Amino acid sequence: MTRIAIIDSGVHANHPHVLGVAGGIAFHEDGSNSADYTDRLGHGTAVTAVIRALAPEAELYAVKVFHDRLSTNIETLVRAIDWSIDNKMNLVNLSLGTSKQDHAPLLQAAITRAIAGKVKIVAAKGWLPGDLPGVVPVALDWDCPWNECHERDGIYYACGYPRPIPGVPVEKNLSGISFAVAHVTAYIARSP
To answer: pLDDT tens digits, residue range 65-81?
Structure first.
């Protein structure tokens, strides 16, 4: 069974589009951690719902790094990646990124550890860590069907829509690269 760490704002595990997670942890900017991985921002739950819908057999783990806003420090993110490696995840979904190039060395070192641990990191192209060697880079393709993705020249492409909501037109729902990353994570999880 594929084990996926979703590093984000946590997960509301009882949400009907998630239907539970196998476990999780929360990392705090002060260097501490806790067992409260409950999502209070919504982003992590929406990302997890995409993965659950497209890879229902995967074991999902909530790795919370965002608490009261969708940002954290680089040390917290690296600790979350290292936890994913230490806990034998197969995939890490990073529906997040930074443009701060000074973070590249710390992120590259974490990616190198992930590769050594046979962990694939999936992240958005155009941001760090998605632009670093060893990461599965993801770009948007708004014309790609919701349950598909494709690869070209080493870059995976997927639509940027979350799980459809009955009665809500797709253009009124959330959208963006975060969901394309989740689509690709699920696609890789389903691939033999």
So the answer is: 999 999 999 999 999 99
* Residue carrying structure tokens 């690269």: 177
Q: In what order do the strands lie in the sheet with 33-34?
A: 33-34, 23-27, 59-64, 3-8, 91-94, 120-124, 136-140, 155-158, 149-152
Locate 123 and state its tokens: 């992240």
| Per-residue tokens: 113 | 């550890």
Measured CA to CA, the distance from residue 120 to residue 111 in angstroms comes to: 9
- The domain limits of the chain are 3-190
DSSP 128: B
Vertex 47: Cα angle to 9 and 49 (nearest 5) = 120
At 27-84, the pLDDT tens digits run 999 999 999 999 999 999 999 999 999 999 999 999 999 999 999 999 999 999 999 9
What's the pLDDT score for residue 175? 86
Q: Name the nearest CA neighbour of 160 among 143, 142, 173, 148.
A: 142
CATH fold group of domain 3-190: Rossmann fold (3.40.50)
CA dist 86 and 184 (Å) reads 23
